């Protein structure tokens, strides 16, 4: 033991300490700086954030796993090395970041000599309750200035897709105490306004002092009591009381496997009258119903910050029922209706024990009848999966196959992570049963306007938006109502957006266009007629009138089409009748019967070719193409290819053909408009050309006949018809018969 202590003492000798410091060469410094220039240093704020965990988890959170390298420094920080600067800047811009729900400090290695290195976290802070007339840059900077220096100001105007909000970017020292509310005298003639601050991505902190590195259970700070400023009675939202004392429904065990629950997070009561006798819980003030969720964020965090202070059940789930107050306390705004609503589903219910999960009804409109199904997905994932399986079994058993079907409601489920904003991504296996149910049922989304997400709520991981509500329909239903659309209304009294399904004006009044049918390329009669037109009317045309030659060919095909029956289904019926008459005749003519069978076989192939072409299914090369699958794909394409409505820049849905044309024209005009090209020549003269003289000669050389032939041969004969309705399948046979004439035309 003594030898070991002696050895340690010898290692700690100060021999050489009196000599002058050695200077590292500039070359070594430059190499070090170059190696560390694209690196970030990450430091945890809480002892539970071990460096090894930060080293493994942070690249996954940044979605850069496998694209960054890292090491643990001697001071406990973790340094990450990036290959590209844009990835490093993206990480800095998208902060702040958390590990184990505690914030981490992220800073560039190049700032290591700055006094605030690894001490600053740049928060995006949402400002609530700010009056509309005060939402100016100067006022917002003064309000946000109580938190620190305001780097950026973001004012989001309300639209159909997004909620209006005011945010500021503020750098805050890790040792400072957070501020969540402050009174401001915005106008001398008005009482002070309580402004609240909501910090983006803030998870755990001290609810007593606002510190970022400890909980309230370990806080030694004692707040000084200040006299409360007297204000007029505000509108109250009773939250804490209901979180603790309100009875929970059987659906509280929601899908919480990824740290988030499905659906609403709190049972809130909004009362128009102030409760003067409230003795339990906290009252939170708000000025607008849209700010309720933001206000909940601050209080909800305070309720959960302490370890073990709130049980898992009290985190809240989407409710089946709502234990609200008596009916006398409820109030509604004046109803404003546009048109008449035929059927309305009120999803929210006050019945604790019985509620509708699935409701089927048959709707008759004129001569058509379809099935309308309302669905409510259970917040419990296990019960919800059982429901999808039950619907799938009913479909496989043949139910609903006789009628077109539309399904709507609160499914409480999403199809993928693209239908979700905020919170950690969910694993792919959680979506499989829901997607399989939709595929087996043949249900497809109906075009929706007014945004993507239908539900908004707060979880321990922050604000989450999801597409829990939707309207889906079969191809038969969409074929009956080609102009159907869904409008998402605004969030008002619920955390769900109401869905409004429009089915009026179900007749498609589009202009019927000429389309070349590739089945005609095997018709000998049409080939001869086309050849005659080519020789008689197109042969003497100059190369500059190639479009005129195509127009004459199209007119010839159109005339031939109007004179002949081209519907394979009608031809098959006529051949069946002729074949039955031939078999029923007293003297059988087997040559005639054989001829009818050959024609029938040819028409079967022609009909199969029709469905293959219209469905655009390319993955199935062999087998029967005249099946329900190809029929459904064709109907689905028809509904997708019809532009029935477009949303303009102001969020208004336009349906008239003229308005749709104006939106499309305006979009592409702005897209292809050029700006800032005054000094283009000055910029181009400093750019090294990439196209050499030899390459330029090859690119500008005349097109050869072989190149034209190969270009036509590689075109898909079923796709990309031009404005004249002709595909490559029309031109290629003509090119084969008149290749020299076509060559001169196409070359010109």
TrEMBL record:
Family annotation (InterPro entries): DUF4283, Endo/exonu/phosph_ase_sf, Endo/exonuclease/phosphatase, Zn_knuckle_CX2CX4HX4C
Zinc knuckle CX2CX4HX4C domain sequence ranges: 172-220
GO MF annotation terms: catalytic activity
Pfam assignment, any one: zf-CCHC_4
Domain of life: Eukaryota
Domain Endonuclease/exonuclease/phosphatase: 340-496
Region ranges (Disordered): 305-335
DUF4283 domain span: 34-111
Protein's recorded name: DUF4283 domain-containing protein
